[in-house]
Amino acid sequence: MSAEVGSKAPAFVLLDTDGNGYNSNNLAGKKAVIAFFPAAFTGVCAEELCTFRDSLAEFSALDAEVLGVSVDGRFANGAFRDQNNLPFPVLSDYKQTAIADYDVVFPDFAGMSGYTAAQRSVFVVGTDGNIAWKWLSDVPSDLPPFDQVKAAVESAN
């Protein structure tokens, strides 16, 4: 499966922090910002998701949903969500299927041989279900270009 701009966004069903399956098909007809992040309770990830939290009204005004996705378990994601007052779904890709489908696998994260995390990345999906824009970090400490994310949502179909 490919996650290139212009291609259909890979579908997924991931556990939310309450243990319910969140189906990406629920986004049909909506714009979405899917933010893959390496690990809950890390400074850069908290800064990234809190920036999305603080911009949520702007994204909502553009009829866009925001989702956070990591390979952390739903319990860690739930505590991370609560600690940072994140009002959007923080989803657990503990089976690593979504990071594989979106081609954002980060092997040996933080020098931990065998530990796979999500590469910090952001995908903007248009109402047609296609990827309208994407950004992939070169290093986990990079934050996404938030102005470009917003501009991509504004211009997405």
Structure description:
It is a single chain. The protein has 157 residues and is α/β, with parallel strands linked by helices. The protein has one domain (13-150): Glutaredoxin (3-Layer(aba) Sandwich). Helix content is 27%, strand content 24%. It has helices at residues 43-54, 56-61, 74-83, 97-101, 146-155, and strands at residues 13-15, 21-23, 31-36, 64-70, 90-92, 105-106, 117-118, 121-125, 131-136. Strands 5-4-3-8-9 form a 5-stranded mixed beta sheet. It has a two-stranded antiparallel ribbon with strand order 1-2. Helix 3 links the parallel strand 4 (64-70) and strand 5 (90-92). The chain starts with 12 loop residues before the first strand and ends with a helix.
